[in-house]
Amino acid sequence: MEERNITRRALLGTMGAAGAAFLAGGLVPEAFAGQPQGTVTAGVYGGGEPSCCMDCVNVADYGVIGDGTADDTAAFQLAADAARASGKALYVPAAMKVKISSTVNLRYIPYIESLGTIVSYVDHSHALLVGNDSRNTKVFRLYFAGVTKGNTLNQDDIGIRAVGLKNAKMTVMSCYYLQLFADAADPTMSSIAYCEFYLGRMINTLELYGAAGTSWINENTFYEGALKKIVIDSASYSHNNNVFIKPCVEGADAVIQIKKGVRNKFYDLRTEGGTKINPPERTTTC
Question: pTM to 2 decimals?
Answer without folding.
Answer: 0.82
